[in-house]
Prior knowledge:
- This protein is mainly alpha-helical.
- The protein folds into two domains: 3-73, Tetracycline Repressor, domain 2, CATH 1.10.357.10; 77-188, Orthogonal Bundle (Tetracycline Repressor, domain 2).
- The protein is 75% helix and 0% strand.
- The chain contains ten helices and no strands.
- It has helices at residues 3-35, 42-49, 53-59, 63-75, 78-86, 91-104, 114-119, 122-148, 158-170, 177-188.
- The longest helix is centred in the N-terminal third of the chain and has 33 residues, at 3-35.
- The chain is elongated, with a radius of gyration of 20 Å.
- The protein starts with a helix and ends with a helix.
- 27% of the residues are buried.
Amino acid sequence: MPDTVRHDWSQATREHRDRQRESIAWAALELLARHGGAGVTMAAVAEAAGVSRQTLYRYHPDLDSVLLGVASMVTASDEAFRVEVLAEPDAPSRLHHLVTSIIEDTAHAPLAGRSVEGALPPAGRDLLRAHERRTEALIAEILRLGVEDGEFASDLVPEVDAPLVLGLVMRADPDRAERVHAIIRKILR
């Protein structure tokens, strides 16, 4: 078999496996959102992902591995998200982009609850805590830039206020996103 064909086949196989892993992680995340940790079983994940249990076990030997895959999926785009947010022209636009993205992101909503976090294996909880710290640091950076540019209230303490903003946003109802933006605007003036 020529090297180019072998390379193309290997690439296609890797891409297929990546799509399968992502499909499994999304299925498990949806189960977590609907039923909490108790509703996530290997059989339920396989059914929700549209794969056989044999295929699921090929990718994940146990439920902890599946749940670690969920946490990994949620945290995988942290740096790309940071770059995307910071590309906005000013601090208010950056904060609006960040808040809107988090509220609309279905991956964050189910993971905001402590009962769901408790369903994750320790390595998954560690990944989510690191993800939360990176998000808080991004909010603090936006707040700091906004204070420096005179766009936000000068009495803000970015490192102290960032976790408060994140807590509000993570628990926001997607149907009331504008209300969250209004509250944050009031806080930042």
